[in-house]
Design a protein that fits this description.
347 residues; mainly beta; 28 strands
Length: 347
């Protein structure tokens, strides 16, 4: 499951991928765009794609890993973020050029990255701040190697930065791209960014990563969580996310984050002007003070978008909350949802 600017996608157990919400650039992958209205509150199946094993939403483009180890992308392509060698947007999936043996894919605002089975990484698309990690600022419409001799176990693309977990005994983290809000974990806010991977001091034993617009977070092997960067905290260096129990997984996007805790409940933090924290209020919460999402249990996956969040549960149901202006929360109206509501229309 993944959430983009104003849309949501889910990969089902049968390999099909369904998306709903805004579709002005074809990011739903249903073969059309700019329909009337240019959105769908009902999940629609991505056309021409079978065997999907994972999906990642950027701002207005989407990418998926296929069971044969290749990748597909669709939606906006002005910076080459679809990776097919063109800058032509597509309303349905196109093959990412030259990629095989893909195990994970991640989509930033206008760039995409993939982790390969050999531990190497490739990125493509917008490179204004060096978020492709190849030592330059030139955009690339095809995947290019990240400049690193290290092998990686996970990768996360944020707005205009990227981070990865290094497959060494310490499971350290490296980041590259923009650092205006300290999202690289290198120095204070406003510190210079990097065109290639640089290590984050004091962050190790990392199991998974999540990169938001201006914040990066990690779940450690001891089930604790750390974040760095962001604009709701005064300092950039890594700080602990304060939770009553351990963390299973974490999601971050735009200026919000959510976690699944060890009891399979959920908590969120960040901006809450349209209810994206899911606790029935519209009150912002800092990273160090997450609030419990109302009424969710047995949570198996969680995702955050620009102003909405979604979670799946053990029984296969999917719930969303927050902004619903384009149907991204799956409701039948444009009214914001302050607490989770079940998404209807999925098989």
């Amino acid at each position: 499951m993944t959430a983009g600017l104003n849309y949501t996608c889910a990969s089902l157990s049968d390999g099909a991928i369904y998306c709903w919400g805004a579709n002005d650039m074809g990011q739903l992958g249903n073969g059309s765009a700019n329909s009337s209205p240019p959105s769908s509150s009902k999940p629609t199946q991505v056309v021409g794609l079978t065997g999907g094993t994972g999906v990642a939403a950027g701002y207005v483009h989407t990418c998926a890993v296929v069971s044969d180890g290749t990748a597909r992308c669709w939606g906006m392509n002005d910076k080459g973020q679809l990776g097919d060698g063109t800058r032509t947007s597509s309303f349905q999936p196109v093959v990412v050029a030259g990629l095989t043996n893909v195990v994970q894919i991640s989509a930033g605002a206008q760039h995409s990255c993939a982790l390969l089975v050999d531990g190497s990484a490739r990125c493509w698309g917008y490179n204004y701040q060096g978020q492709l990690g190849n030592g330059s600022t030139a955009d690339s419409p095809i995947p290019i190697p990240v400049s690193s001799q290290s092998k990686f176990t996970a990768i996360a693309a944020g707005n205009i930065h990227t981070c990865a977990v290094v497959a060494d005994p310490g499971h350290d983290v490296v980041c590259w791209g923009d650092n205006m809000y300290g999202q690289l974990g290198a120095g204070q806010k406003g510190a210079r960014g990097s065109l290639q991977p640089i290590p984050i001091v004091g962050v190790s034993n990392v199991r998974s990563l999540a990169a938001g617009d201006v914040e990066t977070c990690a779940v450690l092997f001891d089930s604790s969580a750390l974040c760095w960067g962001g604009d709701l905290t005064p300092n950039a260096p890594p700080y602990a996310v304060i939770l009553p129990i351990g963390v299973v997984s974490l999601a971050s996007r735009y200026r919000n984050g959510c976690v699944i805790m060890s009891d399979r409940s959920a908590a969120c933090w960040g901006y809450d002007e349209v209810g994206q924290l899911g606790n029935g209020t519209k009150m912002n919460s800092s990273t160090t003070s997450p609030v419990a999402v109302t009424g969710l249990s047995d949570v198996t996956a969680i995702a955050t978008g620009s102003s909405h969040s979604c979670a799946s549960t053990k029984n296969g149901s999917l719930y969303c909350w927050g902004s619903n202006t384009s149907g991204q929360a799956g409701g039948g109206s444009a009214t914001s949802l302050l607490t989770p509501a079940r998404v209807a229309g999925l098989p």
